[in-house]
Amino acid sequence: MELNGVEIEDTFAEAFSLKMARVVITAANKRWAMVAAKEATGFGTSVIGCPAEAGIECLVPSDKTPDGRPGVAIIMCHPKKDGVKDQLLGRLGQCILPAPTTASFNGLETEEKLSIKLQFFGDGFQYETEVGGRKVWGIPMMEGDFIFEENYGVQKGVAGGNFFILAKNQMAALTAAENAVDAIYDVEGTITPFPGGIVASGSKVGSQYKFLMASANEKYCPTLKNKVEGTSIPKEVESVYEIVINGLDEESVKQATKIGIEASVKIPGVVKITAGNYGGDLGQYKINLHEILG
Amino acid sequence: MELNGVEIEDTFAEAFSLKMARVVITAANKRWAMVAAKEATGFGTSVIGCPAEAGIECLVPSDKTPDGRPGVAIIMCHPKKDGVKDQLLGRLGQCILPAPTTASFNGLETEEKLSIKLQFFGDGFQYETEVGGRKVWGIPMMEGDFIFEENYGVQKGVAGGNFFILAKNQMAALTAAENAVDAIYDVEGTITPFPGGIVASGSKVGSQYKFLMASANEKYCPTLKNKVEGTSIPKEVESVYEIVINGLDEESVKQATKIGIEASVKIPGVVKITAGNYGGDLGQYKINLHEILG
Amino acid sequence: MELNGVEIEDTFAEAFSLKMARVVITAANKRWAMVAAKEATGFGTSVIGCPAEAGIECLVPSDKTPDGRPGVAIIMCHPKKDGVKDQLLGRLGQCILPAPTTASFNGLETEEKLSIKLQFFGDGFQYETEVGGRKVWGIPMMEGDFIFEENYGVQKGVAGGNFFILAKNQMAALTAAENAVDAIYDVEGTITPFPGGIVASGSKVGSQYKFLMASANEKYCPTLKNKVEGTSIPKEVESVYEIVINGLDEESVKQATKIGIEASVKIPGVVKITAGNYGGDLGQYKINLHEILG
Amino acid sequence: MELNGVEIEDTFAEAFSLKMARVVITAANKRWAMVAAKEATGFGTSVIGCPAEAGIECLVPSDKTPDGRPGVAIIMCHPKKDGVKDQLLGRLGQCILPAPTTASFNGLETEEKLSIKLQFFGDGFQYETEVGGRKVWGIPMMEGDFIFEENYGVQKGVAGGNFFILAKNQMAALTAAENAVDAIYDVEGTITPFPGGIVASGSKVGSQYKFLMASANEKYCPTLKNKVEGTSIPKEVESVYEIVINGLDEESVKQATKIGIEASVKIPGVVKITAGNYGGDLGQYKINLHEILG
I need a surface site. Which of C7, C179, C210, D145 has the fewest CB within 10 A? Predict the structure, then answer.
């Protein structure tokens, strides 16, 4: 299969389930909502080594937020529900509550809710009130009062959706990856948790070292293409980037994969798109490239 | 004392010591160095609830970096040396190694070094090489080879330097705070670890709840000024922001405090500058406002 | 009338007609489309002293552009059709054609078209081709081939829609103005041509100097409120910003005015909203604040 | 000659003289100074088709500006002194005076000065005052008072310094160009006036059309390399970008050329650097690549 002259390998991405919450941060303006969202989602690329996987989903316009101010939606992911709760407590308490002009609202309507008790920061001066039809806490602080919704929905989502961009040159691969991330940004319910949305270091499970559960995938390392047997790197390829996608459901991850691939093949120098899997035995979800692009 | 017509209270900021490391991240261009630095320093405002305190110190121009590419210096802080080591391993491994085009170098010449063993990610294909006169690892990855220095200096630094900006209006206070952070950005060896460099929620030690070791400082809450006894909020003040400064030594924190205050009093509507302390019994450092501005 | 506790004066904005064109600039990614759009719309605040009024209307997602790449729509305005043509020739030729990876397409389906003959830059090597069902020119250049649509629609639009934000403090007024501009950005068919979308220097027609056709409106100058008779500045107001809106039709300017006012009154410290007019004798359009907000 | 493995052609850039002024714009913070500077320098790439060549030189820290606020220095260029004066009047009056919180100061100490009479905008309410030891005008406006220095230095500068980046792929060429511009930004006294600092459309003097004085240089068009005789495009090159540099003197343009080339050869995929000239008969300045890099 070819798209814009670029080969699309007949393979699939293998994805896993994680528990996910979605928080809508509002602020006096877009800029401050974004500053808070970036702090709250930092150190959040992969649960292999970060306390959570986290990212910015989208801007939420004023007429869609509970308090009528500009907003940013973030998604936080963890293997366990309690892990999501811990991370919400830590990241909302340390990165949103102290951020200028922000408020924090639940962004996921699920039956089950996690109760995040930041109100006690008010040390007795906190009060219950209503904003946009929601019961919230008002917590007096130095800047004024912080508005905070206590209960956050949590659900099973899909993590580790992915595709690889192989290109003739590192800068072509990188620009294509950047373009893919830009495009995916418009797909509701998805995040690309790595730095700038891009992974420079796609890995395999395991390593020759007992203590290391993931390591560089040498078959996808361009500088090893003449040194390892069975390399997956075509002759003309000098660089590969991976896009990793987490989403609230399988459909949104599929849509993001499709949109992302379509955006990346527009960049001159991209020669092939493929995806990462473990033979299909580990993950619950298989996202077939030809199927979603067909 | 007055500065640009703004009252400077005769008081001091009380600061503490934390262990600090400094990492120089380089990349193909400034933008990608910055993207990686932001991811690596996120979820890093206060060790009360974050795994580290972390922030961007400054841009490092190409002619000052080991590999001659544009760089960004970040500082990571933790109460214990082992904590700094854990955080370097996690944040370099999960936020810098996977970020497009980056390399990672030690930015602190101290005798003691922390060994961060990311090279094993290479799964046997890693190799030793030299860049800019430094012994580094080359780790083959999907994008190409990741260059990584293994040993990072660590030293005692000064954390929790601070001042408060009291203004007639929330937006005046916020713009003054923003301006202070912009100015402090130019002071070598310092970071402002909170979101956008600003704290909206200055706290006191302890609370009425046993489980909560820090809570809103009600004497500095403008919306409580008529409700609590002994409020520190003048009649005309409607909002307060705090700037928190960590630095590699006391001198740099003093300099940042001075520069930050001078920048904030330029904003119309600011009426008073003060600082936070605990009577001087808890912290090792006392930064007297009148002294540094005198 | 009050909105969020802010007085809305019972008055109207007086607006004028200008000829307008709309260009869709695409590029390899959003960032470069935006860089080109900013250069092309610079020095374009008011036809009183600039060669055109120009601004960025909105981002155009890949699936809405002729070449399937990310885009930015800009609007250019001039009193005369020939003026629009001159400005398109100059700004497309000098700011879009030389910008990295860009292409330029007509963004306005009108019967009348202006023919902009940039193809001759190809010096005989230009060729006709088709992109997204449109007849376009391909012009070989250093970076590769520049794709350019020759004919651009032009129509009568509405310029000078406006409202004033009066606040207790300059930073409150400015943040409110910034927030208004952010919100208006989402209204299709409109631009806010001043720097950052904001006017610090609202003017009146004429002056005491023969050579000067517009000057500061002293009745709206806060620092003159105790010096001029008939000041329009309430006692508690220290700063005023004006938002000027140009749009492709009256409806879009009304919508932008409404959205902008709603966003600005959310900022603490704003005390009054009003609008600028010349008694209704000069402009073709009257945009009544109470009517659009009612 | 080779630099980082990239061939540097033994040739020179031919540059011309233009008259130049330098303005220091200050504002409440860096961000607003930058917004104003961008508006004021827009539509300013080449005097062939723009009213001026203009660009942002650098940030000016608070302790180096007359009013102690953050600043941005811009440079404006025109073949004639009167042209510089017209452009200062237009661009300061329409893009700086109306921009939020800005002030405007002369940034060039020359004997000859251009008098820019914006003070009349005050319509009689303007007043003389002193800021940072300079005589300035205070002009009451809606936001508060605008501070404006009337007299601006003007001098002969060097325009059209340049080099070309030839790469295997468009994205490699573009990233290298971007990196060069980033690096040049740190060279005092220089600007790169094109969009994002980069020229996609390097031209030759003249064309086959009488009415067109500059056209695409077909010998540097990669898509024509097999169609024109005497192409300058090596077999493996698919894209070329040009960096154009204007500076206050020859030395600064040389330094910027050197720094820019050194930054661009760091990007993988760049294969050759050369420069544009007209045989040396047209321009006053010859900037020899081997000499400055030697």
Answer: C210
